[in-house]
Amino acid sequence: MKKIILYTALGLMTTVPFLACSDDADTTGPVIELIEPEDGDSLLIGSTNGIHLEMNLSDNEMLQSYLIEIHSNFDGHSHSTKTTEETTPFSVHKSYDVSGLRNCHVHQHEIMIPSDATPGKYHLMVYCTDKAGNQSFIATNIVLSHDAKEHED
Q1: Which tens digit of pLDDT belongs to each residue from 93-107?
Q2: Distances 95 to 59, 70, 87, 107, 130 between C-alpha atoms, Å
Q3: pTM above the 0.70 mark?
Q4: CATH of domain 28-75+86-145
């Protein structure tokens, strides 16, 4: 009986590592190269051209999707006087399908900043997920302003 248990234990010790480790598993996340906007760029509130977003996405196997998120980076206090102008903190949470591609160049102007968006500091985040579920992200700081230069493409 002891021999059966010993052989079973030895068999499991030699078999389980091969079952657990597979050379076929994709564990490498996608690569995101954000070209524009650059860190610290000021974007024009109310522009009819939309945010100029340009980036390269790539994966060693296959891409699945990317997500653009923009949210305020306000620190919770203000030194300005209250104005009569109504503003709304700007936010975006939009996903795009790029399945079936291994490399993708994104150049878009889809995201509009409404004219009532609150000026200030924001984070622009790009998340990219590959077919295996691996995810990478990149973050950059942007500023929304009524005085920013209109982007020309």
Answers
A1: 999 999 999 999 999
A2: 18, 12, 25, 15, 13
A3: yes
A4: 2.60.40.10
